[in-house]
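Moderator note: this is an archived Q&A kept for reference. The question asked for a predicted structure of one protein chain; the sequence and the answer are reproduced below.
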Amino acid sequence: MLFACVLALLAASGLEEAQAADGALAARIDAHVDAPRFEGASWGIQAVSLDSGKTLYARDAGRLLVPASAAKLFTGALALDALGPDHRIATSLLASARPDRNGMLRGDLILYGYGDPSLGTDLHDDWAAELAGAAWRAGIRTVDGDLVADATRFSAPAFGAGWEAADLQSWFGAPAMALNIGENVARVLVRPAARAGEAAHVRFEPPSFGPAFVLDNALLTVAAPARSDISLARQPGSARLHAFGTVAAGARESAYRIALPDPALMAGQALRQALADRGIEVAGTLRSVAWPDADRARPAEPWRVADTWSPPLAELLERGFKVSQNLYLQAMLLMVGAAEEDRLRAVAAAAGTVPPPFRTTEQLGVTALGRYLARFGIAPSEISVEEGAGLSRRNLASASGFVKFLVALADDPAARPFRTALPVAGGDGTLAGRLRNEATRGRIFAKTGAMKNVASLAGYATTAAGERIAFAILLNNYLRPPDAARTSIELDAIVAMLVDAEPQHQEARLESGGQATTGLK
């Protein structure tokens, strides 16, 4: 009886301590988000203990806000679920005929993409030589027809719904196609001429991407004390790149990253060069085709010469999450959408009915995402996104929707590739330079998001006492005062408060025999 009374007293004492800790944590975070500099801003915050299920903090958790790149969490998890972490993406070399005994292929050679975003990067840089070698081994020596770079696997625009026109020439707004190369970005390097009054020098890296652009160079080299004032502009849908302004004499070479206007064509160019290196001549022209156009000359059942394969999807997701690579996550949404289109057509064929009305590959991917989120009890009123990268300001999500999603994946063994792909505070990716002190470094695993007047951070953390939490912090409509800290620091301060907080309901963990952890499972 005495022992039971002691346990009751200890439990009551623990509850009082937990309540006091709750109040202290809430007071600290409230004081931060209620600062005058945030008077016109909108916050959405929630943090939940994964060990006890208790809500540790909430502020307008149900408010719908723009999530920016934190929305990549949904796309990445969907792709892993729909395609599998070991899924490898093909890029195929097809032909409209087989070569004769002399090695002549009387027809077209077709480079057909399925959406591999890593083609032509360090993750998959030998693809063209691999396909050219396969063509040689298949007996092809001369192609009488064209080399066709076919990106029609995706029946969707190359840019996500809601992407802003001003972003489309930038590296982060690069098109996402079924046939990509070099992450669909070229480097533009500018340096002054030898003498003032002469046109500045403009070059491209890699040099093979130079033909992607029609360069209109009006950059003028100017003498001191004039300074460089360089502008680059390319209208969406146009290959003409305007370079204008001034470059100071003696200035160092400046580098810029510009989205490719036609990545499929550049992929075809890379293959054509690889074929030539193997001694295979293509007599016809190089052309690209993408939705809504169709290559009607392509046979219904072309000869498959060879395939080259991407790294596993889990590895691609890690690249996409760590550095917040928009192309990778938009491509994954489109791949899910293409698989959904295949499924619907197969169902219609089996039932003997007409295929469903046309919807873009992106729309089908978004529909699949809605079904996926519904499995966790997440309604469209909590999370509503319309593209895969988080670039659209029409995407909306609540902090509570994020946390509900994160809690569902926290201990799921199948979601381990999702969790381990997240940037690590003070360690790598977009969090390499953030939350680096001893109390936070290596304890936060989260996806960042940022665009003008918007910031977000959502993921997992482990407190100094070993309590695991899921959290989401969304900040919108914030006009940062000139003397204020960077917006990312404002969000990091809240995470640091959560990590430093005392454990909640420690007795619940002791009763279950649980052990404190400092990392992800």
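Archived answer notes: The chain has three domains: 24-82+360-512, 88-159+264-311, 182-259.
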